[in-house]
Amino acid sequence: MEGIVxxxxxxxxxxxxxxxxxxxxLKLTRxxxxxxxxxxxxxxxxxxxxxxxxxxxxxxxSLEKASANIxxxxxxxxxxxxxxxxxxxxxxxxxxxxxxxSLNVGNMxxxxxTTQYKRSxxxxxxxxxDFMKLHELGVQMTAQMVPEEAVSDLMEFLK
Length: 159
What we know:
The protein is α/β, with parallel strands linked by helices and 159 residues long.
């Protein structure tokens, strides 16, 4: 996955505080949000673009376009943070041929019908099952809000 330096699942997608920390720590040149709903929501796209740090390009695109662009090595020579909204998005990208070997889970908010596994991670039964599928596929998953926080193995919280 030429150019992709980090894959993150965060239901807030692109937001100021964490975006700035990750951007600096990873020396990003681009932040890519790959999500089918966001890709067609002009209002949300304009809000997300405003959250991006100065000097860092943004791509707010569908999963299919993200997969096609990454596989075509469109981001070669760049340092890209790929942000997804859910584990289902990660599974879909893998099905489309992306070799996702590791990902970091930031925030998945407490919502109706979710179980809290970590202070910042609450999952529906379907999301839990999707993380288990990713684990079975050999994807290394960590739980870390900001780069300064200690890295934890997500599976320790899901057991």
